Amino acid sequence: MTTLDSQVGSRAIPNPKNSLITKLNAGTGLIVGILFAIGTYKGLSNTLDTSVYHLHNQVLLATMFMWSIGFLVGIGAFIGPVRWLVGKDLTAEEQLYMAGDGQGISRYFKYCTDHKVVGIQYLWGVITLLAVGGSMAMMIRTDLFNSGGHFVTAPIYNSLVGLHGITMIIALIIVATGPFGNYIMPIMIGAADMAFPRLNALSWWVLATAIPVLCSAWFLGGIPTGWTAYAPLSVQAGPGMNAFLATIIIFAVSTAVAGMNITATVITMRAKGMSWNRVPIFVIGATVSVALAIPAFPTFMVAMIQTAMDRSFMTGFFDANVGGTGWLYAHLFWIMGHPEVYVILVPGVAIIMEIVPVFVRKPLFSYTAAVVGFAGIAGLSVLVWAHHMYMSGWMPMLNGPFMVTTEMISVPTGLIFLVILGTLWNGKPWLKVPMLGAYAFLWNMLIGGITGLYLSDVPADQYLHGSMYVTAHFHYTLMGAALTGAVAGLVYWYPKMTGHMLNERASYVSFWLIQIGFQILYLGMFIAGSEGQPRRVADYASEFINSNRISTVGAYTVGIGFIILLWAVVHSWRHGKIAPMNPWGAKTLEWTVPYPVPLTNFDTPPVVTSDPYGYGRSAK
Questions:
Q1: What is the rounded distance in angstroms from the CA atom of residue 355 to the CA atom of residue 371?
Q2: What global pTM score does this model have?
Q3: What burial class does residue 220 get, using C-beta atoms within 10 Å of its C-beta: 0-12 exposed, 13-18 middle, 19+ buried?
Q4: Domains, the chain
Q5: pLDDT, tens digit, for every residue of 473-485?
Q6: How far apart are CA 156 and CA 213, in angstroms?
């Protein structure tokens, strides 16, 4: 059996009689969530005067949070804790049912505790977010094809920019640690599951409830603030801003739960013999990523809570008239905002470092240097946030120190580069799509890193700040490097996650379309930004029309490439070539288990006797 719905084999389906667990799924969650939302909205609307700005915001925020809570109640997220509190914990049969044993494809629509199911749920959640965010990007580029020719109105354009930004940021934060950190990572370290399986399921379904909340912003007038949502503009914005605030708060809860779980799993559940110098580098990268996220994201959450209180209860956190300050918001946001770049980037880098030794058949060049590089990036990333505020006028005397720390972060980043290049040196690469992704990553990250050095320098930033140059730079880093690494990881681990090989011809075609289109798209933006075109504007001067048309052609090329990749993912899932157990000849533990992967991953707990990159040398 090789299809998705046969992962657990042919065992009889455990069906605990008279248990509420067997009757709950995403459908019941949807019903209960809608009922909670409608009841909250009607109840508060009958009590409060919704024509008053702050009271209307109270009603909308309460409705959104109650939707999330109601959905989690309806899908059964709280059954385990409630049963434990009343002294009637789940039976072994109920726990096996909750793990999805023998249930086929239906378990992907339930509160399932199997980490492999959660990994697939995250994968399709990421694909959905990327599709929504990418569609908005196409609308933005279509609008910018002509100067003065508006495909959408200026207010809609502003909302597109903001909602595209936050949708893609959320997608990229989970693009690697969501699918692969859940499905692959526990098997990589020889664990039977995650440390906290119920919390693992909770992290996904909490995130899932945030997606409709974010989409509701379109029906509430959009957001005018961009994805940064600077106060006091966000305090004064229309009702759509409530959807933004609620989404970030809900998402922060999800990332905190997921990060804690991944960290606990890696620290406590490694196989016998897997010392820290034998841990696969992707596991190190994922752990560093969530270790950054756990302290960084709560500051964004706090900023959203304070904004919500200013909007709903007329507090004055960001209102200078009552003693508040917009500087508070700026710092809370960017204390999260720059570590967040590396939360996104580090797992993608680690995937590339996982792939390269396999496809050149050489050990990873200096595993220790790679770990030191990750540690250096993590440490310095929390000391650079104010380079986003050079032009704001805040504490000019600190521009120099923040410029130094920003430039210093290129040192551990360069160390990571040297590890990858050292692994490639004198190798004979097997040029499959994952390996092509490694070369594309190096090219894109090189451009993203070099162009970032100009922005770290105060005099250069005075000219480039707020221009399309900045947009091109961070897309080379986040999309060109991090997303390229995640796509390479998808092709690499697709056989283990589905039992099929990804359509090779389609994956090659999509790779080249995406990478060529990407260079055209952001080359045009670099040109426009260098010439002085500002970002986040619905119209521009006619002298920028050629560079914008170049960018739009590139954007549509990228879009076509991703559509082909999506077709390949969907079509190959059931109709692709049956994958051998270890199609790439890799040495990490996930390739030692068959497909379908057993419920507890390993029939016998593995014992590790060597590092995972010992190509061409004896075990040690």
A1: 16
A2: 0.95
A3: middle
A4: 113-592 (1.20.210.10)
A5: 999 999 999 999 9
A6: 18
